[in-house]
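Table 4 source record.
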Amino acid sequence: MNQPAGNWFLIAIVAGALAGCTGDKGAKIDPNIFPAKYKQEIISTLEKTLVDATNIRDAFISDPALTPVDKDQRYTVCVRYNARNASRQYTGSTERIAYFYGGNLNQLIEATKEQCSIAAYKPFPELEKVCRSENKCT
């Protein structure tokens, strides 16, 4: 049952070559796939990044829109909310812009006045209902 070392080496080379042929490495992602789960992705990101993601007030969101970004276009969403700091004090209205690539959230950053100035905001009650039991949502 002892196989010569050369046979194992040959088998390893053939297996590696076949494995390299199975994936479509040339497939391109369409950067402008509509972000169907944009609300959930934004909520999930804010839950992880805000000091206190509970009892958010005055939450508003825009619908995804193709927006010029440098030389390209990407789906963006504007979000406005009033969250609390570590002392549980409201900090005032914050406006962020979400950038999507391939249908998924890529960045959620503070927006400049120009970036969301024409956003058609609508209520975002899902963000206001975020509650983590360890934070006592009151």
